[in-house]
Specification:
Blueprint (H helix, E strand, L loop, with lengths): L1 H42 L4 H9 L7 H34 L3 H12 L4 H27 L2 H8 L5 H5 L8 E2 L6 E7 L21 H9 L21 H10 L11 H7 L8 H7 L3 E6 L8 H7 L4 E3 L1 H6 L15 H15 L6 E6 L21 H21 L7 E7 L22 E4 L18 H8 L3 E2 L3 E2 L2 E2 L8 H5 L1 H7 L5 H6 L2
Parallel strand pairs: 2-5, 2-6, 3-4, 3-5
Antiparallel strand pairs: 1-8, 6-7, 9-10
Helix pairs in contact: 1-3, 1-5, 8-15, 9-16, 14-15
Length: about 525
């Protein structure tokens, strides 16, 4: 009797375990499928390198809704879905066991017993979660470019070694009177938001102020109209974009990288960047963001490349710019950021040394963007409303800068950091339309006739920024970038972006040894 009872208990425990394992496999598969679709639909990742970097960085310091939305969409909903399926299964099983349908079912079972359909059904039911898990893994690896990443990582390329120009080996001649730099990274700002008349992709111009600035000042473009840069591999997210435009290199993340060690050492720690160059030539570097500066490894990069004085969401609290319990969007919105920047610029400009004041807007971040109460919100698309409001605020901010005494000795640069990840906004535009990162140079120390009909990437912003300050660059190349003020061909013009994007993901011993 005891043995029989023990066997029954063991059988029950095994049965419970198998049910739990069955549901767990379904749950994991659901997370992979839901999570993959969430990443694709909301953030438009274009490489596993970008995903890997994001996962290794401070993802918990993202905007207030990002982590919550991920948990809700990819963990809570799949969990309730699996629980719901199991509950429905138990209810149906109970009904069939305790109803007049029992005789019919038994009769049906007898009729199909000869072809063993019942056993086949049990086998299918048993292996279904295993099949679903295999499918979900393959689906995720395909959609999130993991297969492409593994294939590229298995190959080796000398492209970076052959084309990289070490800035420390280049003669840089600064003017006797050094110019200040105000560099504004515009979150997800691209020329696409303009109307077709101005080389945009829409019937309406959602960025009229920025369009006007580009038309009235110096804009580098791939056409005769306004246009911009193509972001290449390793540069398509904010930190990657900042590194590209200030060091002329991509961020390449390895699967076997020790993330904690990587970030403690700094991002592309061995590269000689814009911040390093300016610091070594007597500049004071500043960086202002409306979010947590640690997000995405930004603090690690800026700390090790130019010793930037940094202002972020927490600095705003410490300085009394916002209350301790204040938190909007990613921290504080751009309207507060611009007012804060005005105060800092007024203070900084009173010092004797030249300055580099860099800032990053945030209202136009995916997904959906943010609009302040004063924004008109006259369009059906909330994200395009945030673009329009950002354009208006930037127009006002630039106008304020131009009225300041320090402006006559200051170059002002506005560039998008990368293309927008808000995929829903671009579903109706022409497939052949080339989306490019916005740029405009105001009050540059030099001019050029080579700013139109150019092919270039955000790598080229690095030497171009220095040139706009009046710095003479021997050879007009730094990192993988070319000075666009010169008529020298960029790597994009020499090789084509397709070729470059094929080589950048591949292994580079040179990159690992001298840049990373």
């Amino acid at each position: 009797m005891k043995k029989t009872k023990s066997k029954k208990i063991l059988k029950k425990v095994v049965k419970i375990f198998l049910v739990f394992l069955y549901l767990l496999l379904l749950f994991v598969s659901s997370i992979l499928i839901f999570g993959t679709n969430w990443a694709i639909n909301n953030y438009g990742f274009d490489s596993f390198n970008q995903i890997l970097y994001t996962l290794n960085s401070s993802v918990t310091k993202a905007g207030s809704g990002v982590v919550d939305d991920f948990i809700l969409s990819n963990i809570v909903i799949p969990l309730f879905l699996i629980i719901g399926i199991y509950v429905i299964y138990r209810i149906i099983k109970y009904i069939f066991r305790n109803s007049n349908f029992v005789w019919d079912i038994e009769l049906f079972h007898k009729k199909i017993s000869n072809v063993k359909l019942k056993k086949v059904g049990k086998v299918i039911f048993t292996i279904f979660p295993i099949f679903l898990l295999i499918f979900s893994i393959c689906y995720t690896m395909s959609k999130l470019y993991i297969f492409d990443y593994l294939i590229s990582s298995s190959k080796t390329s000398d492209f970076i070694k052959l084309e990289y120009v070490d800035p420390e080996d280049v003669k840089l001649t600064f003017p006797n009177k050094k110019r200040n730099l105000i560099y504004i990274y515009l979150e997800s700002m691209e020329n696409t938001y303009a109307n077709e008349e101005n080389n945009g992709a829409f019937d309406i111009n959602y960025m009229p102020e920025l369009t006007q600035l580009a038309k009235e000042n110096l804009n580098f473009s791939y056409t005769k109209k306004i246009g911009g840069a193509v972001p290449l591999y390793g540069t398509t997210w904010t930190t990657g974009a900042i590194v590209a435009s200030t060091a002329g290199v991509p961020i390449k993340t390895s699967l076997d990288a020790n993330s904690s060690e990587y970030y403690s050492q700094g991002v592309v720690d061995k590269a000689y960047s814009l911040g390093d160059i300016l610091k070594d030539n007597g500049y004071q570097n500043y960086m202002m963001v409306g979010s947590d500066i640690e997000f995405g490894g930004r603090k690690a990069y800026l700390s090790s490349h130019g010793d930037y004085t940094m202002f972020d969401y927490y600095s705003a609290i410490d300085e009394g710019v916002i209350d301790e319990d204040y938190y909007v969007w990613w921290g504080l919105e751009d309207s507060i950021l611009f007012d804060w920047a005005k105060d800092k610029l007024t203070e900084i400009s009173s010092n004797d040394e030249p300055f580099n004041f860099t800032m990053l807007t945030v209202d136009t971040h995916a997904v959906g963007g943010y609009t302040s109460d004063f924004c008109e919100n006259k369009y059906d698309d909330h994200y395009l409303n945030s673009i329009a409001c950002s354009s208006s605020q930037l127009g006002d901010f630039v106008e304020w800068i131009q009225k300041q005494d320090f402006y006559k000795d200051t170059t002002v640069i506005l560039t998008g950091d990368h293309l927008s990840m808000n995929k829903a906004t671009f579903t109706k535009i022409d497939d052949d339309y080339l989306r490019t990162v916005y740029n405009v140079y105001l009050n540059s120390a030099i001019e050029t006739d080579c700013n139109k009909n150019r092919e270039f990437s955000t790598f080229d912003f690095f030497p171009t920024t220095l040139a706009s300050l009046g710095v003479k660059i021997d050879g007009n190349k730094l990192g993988l970038g070319t000075n666009l003020f010169s008529c020298k061909k960029t790597l994009s013009e020499i090789y084509g972006n397709k070729y470059i994007n094929k080589n950048l993901p591949q292994k580079s011993t040179f990159y690992n040894k001298y840049i990373a």
